[in-house]
Amino acid sequence: MRDLKKKKFDWALFALVLILVILGLILLYSTSAYNGRVKFHDPAYYFKKQLFAAILGVLGMYVISGIDCSVLLRFAPALYLASIALSTVVLFVGEEINGSRRWLSLGPLSFQPSEFAKVAVILFLAWVIQKTRRKATSFLFMALVLGSVLPIAALVGSNNLSTAVIILGVAAITVFVSNPRYLPFLWIAAAAVGFIAVFLSVESYRLERLAVWRNPEAYEKGFQTIQGLYAIGSGGIFGRGLGSSLQKLGFVPEAQNDMIFSIICEETGLVGALLLMAVFGLLIWRLMVISTHAADLTGALIAAGIMGHIAIQVILNIAVVTNTIPNTGITLPFVSYGGTSIAFLLGEMGLALSVSRTSGFYGQTAARSI
Q1: H helices of the chain, where?
Q2: What pTM, to 2 d.p., does this model score?
Q3: Does residue 368 register a pLDDT over 50?
Q4: What is d(CA 41, CA 261) in angstroms, rounded to the nearest whole number?
């Protein structure tokens, strides 16, 4: 086991994460104050719950950063099986909100198994690739890796297509890191398109989303999208000012969730939106550097998986809010309201910090070979 205490702490990554957490809390309070006052008679209702989850997440991040990833990898199969079990249970006894069963209630707390599944899949993929990479042909290797995550992707995708897309995207990225050949990914892309097409055709409401996306003004369900675009357009270059949004006053439903980026654009303008995207870009870049300089293949895969998760989720959320793609109900990492989401995201950052501590950042060449 490597001695992490002798390695330097990655303060750059830690600072970027804290900046995103603090910015997220500020933007969330500004966005959610009206809904909190109307629904719970407390403008800080959502803020306080998110702050509590963020504090727990930061503590978890610090603890995980001091654990060697090779230790955590031993539990990867068990964590993956647990994610499958939880994703199955939620389909039958999960709490239904807005027509989807995505939450398990544990007394006063609610838990979203799909967030746990993302972390479990990243660790499990690193474990599978480590076990099979030198024992299978290139095609068989890819089939084994991608096939290993299809069960959880199918379960999660039955009521949360966006998370299934993230899981498949993370799988493709980790496979590429371990076996960087371009041609086989044409087959992977074709399989992914087929997988998504099947899920779209199974339920009629998913096909309806395509119609709403093409012409939101013709459907009642396009109201949220239209109001979000109004918010983005009315923000202009510099925005109305923090706390001055009009669209969050009931026009954009549940503005603190999936559509929070539209309110950010309205209150801080193009400048504020670009600055937030720049911070996300720096975080993704840092994770890519950690993956590149990881001391071994396992660390590289874990960091790459985390990078892929953050990048895909940010891109999908912004694309949905701007109506570039159909609405998939996906949150903006570290910013949208969701205690489960921010806690597990910070846990992933702890994994990245652990990988960074054993990397070749500080004057030594990475020892891994891909």
Answers
A1: 11-40, 45-65, 69-73, 76-93, 113-132, 138-157, 161-178, 184-202, 204-214, 223-235, 260-292, 297-321, 339-357
A2: 0.90
A3: no
A4: 24
